[in-house]
Fold this protein.
Amino acid sequence: MRCAIVSRAGQVLAYGHLKLHREVSGDLRLDLHTDGGKHLQGGVVGDDGDLTTASHALAQQFFDVWGMSDLILNVTLR
């Protein structure tokens, strides 16, 4: 899925793609690959497909990379 990371002020910090990848263990992990070459690793998707834990881990990566909280993940489906 194509997405943008947007600050509270409305500035686009990065464009990229959300991706699920299967780890060797068989778990699915939610990641973001930015157009600028950053790879942000989110958390593991729940057995029932719940993305809550995976997205919380990804949000922590956003804070670590951009040093801001309350960022908006804007997803475009095409």
About this structure: Residues 52-66 form the longest helix (15 residues). The first strand starts at residue 2 and ends at 6. Helices lie at 52-66. The chain has a mean pLDDT of 93.
